[in-house]
Amino acid sequence: GALIGLVLASVWKVVTLRTQPLTQAEITPPPIPSSFRSTVANQTLDATLSCAPGSHLERSRALVGCFDAQGTKNGPVLTFHSNGKVQRYAVWQSGKRNGMSWEIDEAGRPTLYEEYASDKRDGLYLLFDAKGRVATEAHYKRGELDGVRREWRDGQLTTWQRFENGAGVETKRL
C-alpha cells in the first residue's frame, strides 16, 4: 500500500490552487515585443532580408524569404495578405522554425507571437485578441509548457497557472 502510494505520488503531480494574492506585475499583460514594430509590421514585398550563407532570397506574389539550394526555408520568411500587409513572419533554419514567429491580421495587428528552437515552441508565446491586446501569455521549453501561463479577457486577468515540464502545478482563477 505505501509503495503504491509512493509510486503514484511520484508519477502524478498535484495541481494546487494558489491562495496568496497576485502582484501587480503578475496581473499586468506584457508589452508587445519590440521586434513586431522593428522587424515585422512595416515589411513589404520589396523587403530586403539577410539570408544565411548558402541561401538566397526568393520572391513571389505573396512571399519573400530565404531558401537554400534544395528549396528549404533557411532564414527569415515573410508571407503577405492580399492587401500587401504582412501575414506571417518566421525565422527558419534548415526547414525548421528556429527563432521568432509572428502572425498578423489584415489590419496589421498581431494575432500570434511564438519563439521556436528546432521546430518546437521554446520561449515566449503570446496570443492576441481582436483589438491587438495580449489575451494569453505562456512560456515553453522544448515544446512543453514551462513557467507561468496567464490569460486575460477584455484586459482583465482571468487565469494564472504555473507549469513544470508540461505539467500544471499551480492555478489561480480570478
User: Biggest sheet, in brief?
Assistant: 13 strands, mixed
Radius of gyration: 20 Å
Structural class: mainly beta
Order of helices and strands: HEHHEEEEEEEEEEEE
Helix content bin: 10-25%
Portion in strands? over 45%
Using DSSP, what is the number of strands?
13
Average residue-wise pLDDT: 85
Poorly predicted residue ranges: 1-14
Gross geometry: flat
**Number of alpha- plus pi-helical segments:** 3
Distance between the termini: 38 Å
List keywords for this structure.
174 residues; mainly beta; 13-stranded mixed β-sheet; 13 strands; 11% helix; flat
Description of the molecule:
The protein has 174 residues and is mainly β. The chain has 3 helices and 13 strands, in the order αβααββββββββββββ. Strands 1, 2, 3, 4, 5, 6, 7, 8, 9, 10, 11, 12 and 13 form a 13-stranded mixed beta sheet that branches. β5 and β6 form a beta hairpin. Residues 1-14 have low confidence and may be disordered.
